[in-house]
Amino acid sequence: GIGTRGPGETKLEVDRRKIRKRISFLEKKIYQIGVQRDTQRKKREERNIFKIALVGYTNSGKSTLLNAATDSDAYVEDRLFSTLDSTTRKLKIYPNSEVLISDTVGFIEKLPHQLIASFKSTLEEVKRSDLLLLIVDVCNTDFENNIYSVKEVLKEIGVWQKPVLLVFNKIDKLSRGELNSLKIKYKNSVFISALKRSGLPELYLRIKKMIERHYLNIIVKIPYNENKIMSFIYNNCQVLRRRDLVDSTILNLNVNSKYYSILSRYICRGRESREANIG
C-alpha cells in the first residue's frame, strides 16, 4: 500500500518519501491558491478599494483580530502556519468606501528562502495592500526581536516602504504598569486585546485617519462625449455630488490618490473650481 516499505527501504527512507510527497502536494495547493488570489486581486484593483494586510510573527493574534474586526470566523489555532492562504474580509468602518482586511501567514525568524518562494502567493496580499498592521504579541518575551524579524521579511519582499501601524495585542495579560511602560516606549502605536475586543475603537480611528490621507476630494468637469472617463469615474470613484450643464457634467469626487493622474486634465482649478463647486 501507499507509504509501506519497498524492497530494502529503511523506516527513515519511507519517512523521507512521505515528506517529499507531502511537500509536492502543498506546493501544488499553494500554486492553485496563488492563481485564485491573483484573479481576486485583479478584480479588487479595478475598483476603488482600500486594502489592509495583517502581518506579524506567527501566533501574534492576527486571525483573532480579523474575526473581532469583521465578525467572521477565520480559522484560529495556536500553531505554526495555521493560516496558510490569505483570508480576506470586508471591514465596515469607513462610510461609503470599501475597506478590505486580509490575514496572512505568520512570519518566523530567519524564514528560509524556499519558504518565502512557497508563500509568495499569500504574501502578495501584503505587496498589494495600502496599509500594513503589524500585530505584536506582548506576551512573548522576545517580541522586540519578533518585530525585527517581521521587518526583515517585509524588506525582503519589498514592502517596508508602505504605511505600517504597530498594533500591540493581548494587553489583557499585562499589568497596568507594564502597559503604561509599553505606551511610553511605543508612543505612536495602538494597544488592543483582540480576544477581549478592547482597544478596537482606537484602532479603527487610526485606520480611518490613514484612509483619509489616501483619498482626495476633487471637482472635475467631464464633457458629455467623454463616455469612457465617465464610466471609469463611476466604477472607481465615490461620486459625492453631480450637476449637469449644457455641454458637460460637474462632479464632486472622493478618489484614490493613485487615480489622480488619470483625472488631472479634468480637474477644476482656481476660479473655475470655485464656480464649479456644487457643495
Automatic annotation (TrEMBL):
Kindly list the GO molecular function terms attached to this UniProt entry.
GTP binding; ribosome binding
Q: PROSITE patterns in the record, alphabetically?
A: G_HFLX (PS51705)
Q: Which GO terms describe its cellular component?
A: cytoplasm
The record, for Gene3D superfamilies, names: 6.10.250.2860, P-loop containing nucleotide triphosphate hydrolases
Checking Pfam families in the record gives: GTP-bdg_M, HflX_C, MMR_HSR1
**Do you know which CDD domains this protein is assigned to?**
HflX
SUPFAM superfamilies to which the protein is assigned, alphabetical: P-loop containing nucleoside triphosphate hydrolases
Which InterPro entries does the record cross-reference, listed alphabetically?
G_HFLX_dom, GTP-bd, GTP-bd_M, GTPase_HflX, HflX_C, P-loop_NTPase
**Which parts of the sequence belong to the Hflx-type G domain?**
50-215
Looking up PANTHER family in the UniProt record yields: GTP-BINDING PROTEIN 6-RELATED, GTP-BINDING PROTEIN HFLX
Q: What is this protein called?
A: Hflx-type G domain-containing protein
Q: Which organism is it from?
A: marine sediment metagenome
